[in-house]
Amino acid sequence: EVHSLIIAIRRMPKPVVASVSGACAGFGLSFMSAADLAIAGDDSYYTLAYTLIGTSPDGGSTYALPRLVGLKKATELALLGDRFDAATAQDYGLVNWVVPAADLAAETEKLAARLAAGPTVAYGRTKALLQRSLDNPLERQLQLEADNFAACAVEPDFAEGVSAFVEKRRAAFTGRA
To answer: Which domain, by its residues, includes 42?
Structure first.
């Protein structure tokens, strides 16, 4: 079921990267919006398109889009179904990077490798904190940040990160999430 896929992406502790080439429409846009980061080829184009076929959106797009682009822009995208290009998707905050289409696979692999070499426990905790932030009052979010910081501080990656900072070198994280 497609809904369970969206939920799994949102709850997964590891960062999920969407790599977009060509058309990104309907559920494809919903799927991309669920990812934590998105990199797009300059040949990509986007439309929510559900209303163009006479239905309301699906795939969590009415959850994700207002959080990514704001309610007014999400309403425009959902009601009108207009097509827009990669640069516009980046302007809206739907994609993080736009690269030449010919470089998309290599740039996506480079990003994935960078994430894989990072402090994966901290990434998972950061992802969860960010996802909860829009639903929590400030006091609750501050407490969650303090709790998660303390949990990260006992991980080997924290010790390595601090040592690398003091020694002015790149950290060699091991991760375990």
So the answer is: 2-115
Distance CA 75, CA 73 (A): 5
64 and 93 inside one domain: yes
102-117: per-residue pLDDT in tens?
999 999 999 999 999 9
Domains held by the chain: number: 2
Mark whether 132 and 47 lie in a shared domain. no
Structure tokens at 116: 């894989």
User: How large a percentage of the chain has pLDDT more than 70?
Assistant: 99
The tokens for 165 are 């900072």
99 forms beta bridges with 41
Residue 169 to residue 141: CA distance in whole angstroms: 32
Alpha-helical (H) ranges within the chain are 2-11, 27-34, 61-69, 71-80, 86-92, 104-116, 120-133, 138-153, 156-166
The pTM of the full predicted model, rounded to 2 decimals, is 0.91
Q: How far is CA 10 from CA 16, 40, 118, 127, in A?
A: 9, 20, 19, 9
Distance CA(117)–CA(89), nearest Å, equals 28
